[in-house]
Please model this.
Amino acid sequence: MYRTAETYTVVVVMSAALTSAAAAAADQRPDGWWKSAVVYQIYPRSFQDSNGDGLGDIPGITSRLDYLAELGVDVIWLSPVYRSPQVDNGYDISDYRDIDPLFGTLEDLDTLIAQAHERGVKLVMDLVVNHTSDQHAWFTESRDPASAKRDWYFWRPARPGTVPGTPGAEPDGSIAAFAPSAWTFDPASGQYYLGIFSPGQPDLNWENPDVREAVYAMMRWWVARGIDGFRMDVINLISKPEELTSGAVLPPGGESSLGRIANGRRLHEFLAEMNRAVGLDEHRLLTVGEMPGATVEVARAVTDPARGELTMVFTFEHMNLDQAPGGDKWDLAGLSLPRLKGNLAAWQDGLADAGWNSLYLDNHDQPRAVSRFGDDSPPHRVNSAKTLGTVLHLHKGTPYVYQGEEFGMTNAPFGAIGDYRDVESLNYHALALAGGRPEADVLRSLVAKSRDHARTPVQWDATDNAGFTTGTPWFAVNPNYAAINAEQARRDPGSVFAHVQKLIALRHADETVREGRFALLLPDHEQIWAFTRTRGDDRLLVVANCSSLPCAWPVGQLPDLTDAELLLGTHADARDGELAPWESRILRLA
Ligand code: TEU
Model:
């Protein structure tokens, strides 16, 4: 049907040679080196232990840099390693300028940065500045009503007519993401403070210019240390609603506070100010803002280079498609392929002319992509992980690979609540049970959506504890590690790892993969995800069967394949007129 030859091998060999030259050239691109980059996310506590304490650490990461270089990624995004009481695994920071002893020392981090840079790999730090830990010195000081830092956080009296500290006396009825209330009573002053995630994560008051300058100063300190960018945790929550900032409480409307706080009126002003004060653009940093509740319009404004805010954002829209309308993530609903591909296409269209997309299916807050969007049963795991990779990496934007995704790690077989560790999962279980929901239902939601699926240790090899630690792992290794591990995948030319390696090499080598305009085809097809990428006369076609059943080639509904060239396919035994379950092909049209 089309020229298959060894074209894809040729592409990859060629691109391997081009990679370092291309990376060097990309550094000089006026519109940003990060446009040709692939980012790899590391969740440090679950990546690699080096000292036998059962918890991943920074020297462990350094010891795996050759593996990451072999995969071909350009950037590491490190989830938080700062000093932290670990209420939310490091997303509760008590000292922004130090490393938690669990993970190592500042010197270990300097070594990691230097050794990554030696391999041409950049390092992006997580920046968690919507909130601090309740153990941060700023907050400790703020507890004193007479302190100059009282206004650095949101302190409010009890609801009028109630006894402070008693049930129902909270300033308003908002619940937190990981706790029953967004307000926590502090007996010393008889007032409450706001923590929209948990009591261990009090929200900073960005209206106060001293708060902003303290954050910027800390960011400049990190930039001077040689890092290459920031992933900004829930950054679209920093500008709080006017009701709150004018001294009252959160606006009414829905129990959960997140939706009411997102995309506040001063968001763009704060981001532009941060960019100028830290020199984010000047230092050519990758800046990716995590933005629950952001629309494509917000993302376009934030990432339009002319406005000088951020280089890209993480949308949540495609993460929310398998939940019931009006419900939360625990209200399960089936996932429809037309809705998923339609949503990604809307973001492609919305950011086609200004702005830039980030592309992800997996991270430390989500169940494993192959289990959620693919089919992790033995006959389909490898091909579905490959095909999800094909589709994701061939969109326009910067792709993110989450640790283990590159060899198809799956969800864990969690059963009872004792199997879970995450503060969000444990809080949901307690609240739902207290609210009368049958435990079997609660466990069904947890096993579908818990963040803990992403947090089981990386399965490096088939030895004890999957090679993650010589001690007792802080969290049980997925029992499927003997079959699914990085070492096996590296040795197998037909593995998910080999496929992701080729996808990364293809992006480095091919201008159309990076810049080509995206057009979705067959938007209503229930099995096939197909699209083109066009740059001048050059056109790529991606066709993917995203189902576990074979599918007839949609004759007459796709561009003409005469003389098309196969760049990369999942199936060596591909057949004309048919796509096997989870088969995908990337073609260059003649
Ligand atoms: O996540 C923010 C966020 O809105 C979600 O991803 C969150 O995990 C959600 O409640 C899932 O249902 C960021 C971090 O990525 C996450 O790990 C932190 O727990 C959270 O912020 C607080 O810092």
Summary: Residues 88, 91, 128, 177, 197, 233-234, 290, 292, 329, 364-365, 424 surround 1-O-alpha-D-glucopyranosyl-D-fructose (CB under 6 Å). The two ends are 13 Å apart (CA to CA). Residues 20-130+209-416+459-497 form a domain with the TIM Barrel fold (CATH 3.20.20.80). The chain has 18 helices and 20 strands.
